[in-house]
Amino acid sequence: MSERPILYTCAGSRGLRCTWAAEEVGLDIDLRVLPFPPRHKAPEYLDINPLGTVPLFIDELGDDLSPYQSRMTESCAIAHYIGSRRGPSNVIVQVGERDYAEYLDFTYHADATITFPQTVYMRFALFEKHKGWADAGHAYAEWFYKRLVKVEERLQDRDYLCADRFTVADICVGYALVLAGKVGLDEGVPETLKAYRDRLTAREAYQRAVAKEEAGLALLET
Ligand SMILES: N[C@@H](CCC(=O)N[C@@H](CS)C(=O)NCC(=O)O)C(=O)O
Known about the structure:
The chain folds into 2 domains: 6-91 and 205-217, Glutaredoxin, CATH 3.40.30.10; 100-202, Glutathione S-transferase Yfyf (Class Pi), Chain A, domain 2. It contains 10 helices and 4 strands, in the order βαβααββααααααα. The chain has helices spanning 16-25, 38-41, 45-48, 75-84, 100-127, 134-146, 149-154, 168-182, 191-201, 204-221, and strands at 6-9, 30-33, 56-61, 68-72. Bound molecules: glutathione. Glutathione (GSH) binds next to helix 4.
């Protein structure tokens, strides 16, 4: 039974939520960085994850008599799992704590509602713009901006989304804001959310996570 969970990811992808969560709680993971997109550049990955998406998190559990493997492919669920992998942790809001409902809500909101229009924008306006779909991509960019309203309202009188402290909900939503900066979607991001992003990305755990992913990418390129 392996003590170290395995994380397959691509540098800077949604898997950064998971690499970051691992750094926040000091969980040692076996980070396996793939070229992007893996379905074309590392097709053997499809044997491990037929979806072809990253992240994929594999954890060997149980004991010698009844070992089993858990496999997860949703970045926000993995970030939560990592945050609680070794027991109660400050980056998780526990059942019964104030803001537990909001913690769950923002953690799911991050990918299902915020990152979703970002990825449609990236596909149509950046990756496949030569196909004549750039306008559709830019329409999704507008949709993305409108969907920031809930986070913006929440942070009007708070530094972090839930429970008066930094949690996995901030990792999940924060990644969407980091992605916005990288793919040319900052124009419609309110200044307050840019300041929130600066607070998050100043964290040492975030910087270690980015450095580890980039080191993995550099190894691929040599
Ligand atoms: N909802 C999933 C989405 C996973 C996903 O679509 N990941 C992208 C990278 S950010 C990917 O693997 N794209 C390549 C592909 O689908 O071939 C999550 O949050 O992890």
